[in-house]
TrEMBL record:
Signal peptide: none annotated. It comes from Sphingomonas suaedae. The keyword Phosphoprotein does not apply. Belongs to the peptidase M14 family. Its cofactor is Zn(2+). Keywords: Carboxypeptidase, Hydrolase, Protease. SMART domains: Zn_pept. Pfam families: Pepdidase_M14_N, Peptidase_M14. Residues 111-372 form the Peptidase M14 domain. The active site is at residue 333. GO terms for molecular function: metallocarboxypeptidase activity; zinc ion binding. GO terms for biological process: proteolysis. This is Carboxypeptidase family protein. It comes from the Bacteria.
Length: 372
């Protein structure tokens, strides 16, 4: 039986270059109308009883090639559990191997979160008591921009995930956050819903997610560089969400992402905005300190450099929302690698741990919602 590769499915991305014995050369396809690429997701069949080595031959030209060293690909035979494989990066090629015990296996940059699962999440959450659903509008490919709202309190909390579609860990986090917020037996969730109204966008970029993009929407646009002047023609996702935020105001906002290179969970803030005050900044810093004290799945040592005074990029959502609303605004970054301070050898950073971190974030927020 011959080896077959297939990526013609939701979030699939790979192109076969050559098969030479047990070595399979592939390349990742760039985002539509963009040079960004790094996300891959494909299926292999016809290799039972063989050990294949896959070589991503254009890895060195990927958007964040410096993220390959130390990275390990994910593999699944049931599309539920995604385990770590090996990984090696040399001379611009990323390679990994897998021994096939069965007829078919799937490989991905991170555990995928399909648009079908997204539809199931929306259906499940919209049916919960006290949860309302609103379609804000549609994307360039005609997909729905879904907003879930819950809670009765005056504080306006916005949680939004997956502006960059290849960062699928962000929607796993959003699923975990929604599960906690709708748990009738969770004391922290009860307190939060009494004191705040939550607006949750589980997927900011459904077109890019379905297309198998790393970073952009259907027009090749990086949504997290559109928050100053979004348009329906170029970035309807941001245009629609920012308009909804203008309707409610924003007191607290978390933009959920994944980082290709840094092997840890961390926050990025809004240093450098014109409207920076130490009082507002301290609320952001306090959240990070309290989150680190709450869970071993978060740390404060690794992260991005802070913007200098007056140098913040207001096209990025965290900066825009802090400046626009005076919000305690932040970006949460999770790793494609693993959270090195508390590693997991079989699964690495995983969907379950994304959800656990979401729970810890909400527990932390519950402890300081009155101060926001």
């Amino acid at each position: 039986m011959s080896i077959q590769l297939n990526a013609a499915f939701d979030s699939g991305n790979i192109r076969l270059i050559d098969i030479d014995g047990d070595t399979v050369d592939v390349e990742i396809v760039a985002d539509h109308q963009s040079d960004f690429f790094q996300w891959f997701h494909f299926r292999v069949s016809g290799a039972k009883g063989r050990t294949l080595t896959f070589r991503i031959v254009n890895a060195g030209k990927a958007a964040y090639a410096f993220g390959w060293p130390g990275y390990r690909a994910r593999v699944s035979t049931d599309r539920a559990a995604w385990r770590l494989t090996d990984g090696n990066y040399a001379d611009g090629v990323f390679s990994f191997s897998h021994s096939f015990d069965g007829d078919v296996a799937w490989f991905a940059y991170f555990a995928p979160y399909s648009m079908e699962r997204h539809a199931d999440l929306i259906a499940r959450m919209a049916a919960k008591p006290g949860v309302s659903h609103r379609e804000l509008g549609q994307t360039l490919d005609g997909r729905a921009m879904d907003l879930l709202t819950l809670g009765d309190g005056p504080k306006q909390v916005w949680l939004y995930a997956r502006q960059h579609p290849g960062e699928s860990m962000a929607e796993w986090w959003a699923e975990g956050a929604l599960e906690k917020l709708t748990d009738p037996d969770d004391a922290a969730a009860q307190a939060l819903r009494a004191k705040a109204t939550f607006h949750v966008i589980p997927n900011m970029n459904p077109d890019g997610s379905f297309r198998g993009h790393l970073r952009t929407n259907a027009a090749g646009v990086n949504l997290n560089r559109e928050w100053h002047t979004p348009t329906m023609e170029r970035s309807p996702e941001v245009f629609l969400v920012r308009a909804a935020m203008d309707e409610t105001g924003v007191d607290f906002a978390m933009d959920v992402h994944g980082d290709e290179a840094i092997p840890a969970n961390f926050l990025a803030g809004f240093e450098g905005i014109p409207g920076w005050t130490d009082e507002l900044g301290e609320k952001y810093y306090a959240f990070g300190r309290k989150l680190a004290a709450t869970t071993p799945l978060f740390q404060l040592e690794k992260g991005y450099e802070k913007s200098a005074p007056g140098q913040a990029n207001l096209s990025m959502s965290t900066n825009q929302l802090a400046e626009r609303f005076g919000a305690v605004s932040m970006t949460l970054e999770m790793p494609f690698k693993d959270h090195d301070p508390s590693p997991e050898p079989e699964f690495g950073w995983s969907p379950d741990r994304c959800k656990a971190l979401a729970h810890a974030c909400l527990d932390t927020l519950a402890g300081m919602i009155d101060e926001i």
